[in-house]
Design brief:
CATH class of one domain: Mainly Alpha
Strand order of the largest sheet: 1-2
Number of helices: 7
Number of strands: 2
Largest sheet: 2 strands, antiparallel
CATH topology of one domain: Arc Repressor Mutant, subunit A
Structural class: mainly alpha
CATH superfamily of one domain: Winged helix-like DNA-binding domain superfamily/Winged helix DNA-binding domain
Helix content: 40-55%
Amino acid sequence: MQISTKSRYAVRVMIELALNYRQGPLSLKEIARRQTLSEKYLEQIAHPLRAKGLIYSQKGNRGGYSLAKPPSEVTVYDIVTIMEGAISPVACVDNPQACDRSSICAVSLVWSRLKDRIIEELRAHTLAELAEEEAKLRKSGDEEIHYHI
């Protein structure tokens, strides 16, 4: 199972907004510059985050995006499920009818436990802690962090 590029970039956008929390909105252009991402692609990411209430937009000359909740109240799970939908390593975990063998499949328990562990890990990390870690990494590097995916 791989987390999509959209989810990974969405987390990066949200960390950037968390770093700027209560300092005013950030434009997508500025977020794109800071994260070395395509502004056009960020538009596709911002839409579902806004629709689900994790961010809000402010129009105008000093407009942009801000977190709709404190960073301590938003987890990686919140972001990833908006971008991905259900977190399941295989379809039969959420929909036993997807597999003829689900009632006699011993490995389905493994898949179900894996899903639980993934969710547990994603819920364990808030934007507040990730933003704090990001700030430390940026200071220790004394330069912009560039991601290559």
